Amino acid sequence: MQIAEGDEIAFSELFRFYYPRLLHFLGRFDQSSANVDEAIQETFIRVWMARDQLPSIDNFRAWLFTIASREAIALIRKHLLTQKTSEVFLKNQPSTGPETPADIAQTGEIRRLVEEAVARMPPARRRIYRMSREEGLKPAEIASRLNLSVNTVKNTLVTALHDIRKFLSAHGHTIIPLFATLLFNNFFKGE
């Protein structure tokens, strides 16, 4: 076989011969012409990379179609995984619009700084903050559990929020009201 010796003209003829057949065959796997074309392209790349093995292949057509079907299945799996990952990611994101990598990095930095600020709080304030933020408890529920007045819990949460803002500001982060709402939501739900 001339392709095994690196003959690109013979390879082009092989491609032109099998392309419409593979197009029809792979169209049954995936209706997307872009995915089918990508699978065919990957198939012929694999053929070209394995060209030195071509003389030892008894049934080239079966071998080619096996590679093509595996490529199509791999692409379908890849696209399904990407779609599923995207759906999970989007489901867990606040609906504030698309984020850039810089936004994601800044949000991570702010979360780290918030955790550091919380760790520096006096134990009682830290406990009330965590009960509110991490456990999602309302001020009345916290007050009941800790045998405190609701106003004491609310004032402690306001102080905790002030501490966090001050700590973030000291580290060069200004919290705008909208971001503060997103970051510190659930503080006073169900007052």
TrEMBL record:
Residues 112-160 form the RNA polymerase sigma factor 70 region 4 type domain. The keyword Ligase does not apply. One of its GO terms (cellular component) is DNA-directed RNA polymerase complex. GO terms for molecular function: DNA binding; sigma factor activity. Residues 14-79 form the RNA polymerase sigma-70 region domain. The keyword Transmembrane helix does not apply. Keywords: DNA-directed RNA polymerase, Sigma factor, Transcription, Transcription regulation. One of its GO terms (biological process) is DNA-templated transcription initiation. This is DNA-directed RNA polymerase sigma-70 factor. It comes from Chitinophaga cymbidii.
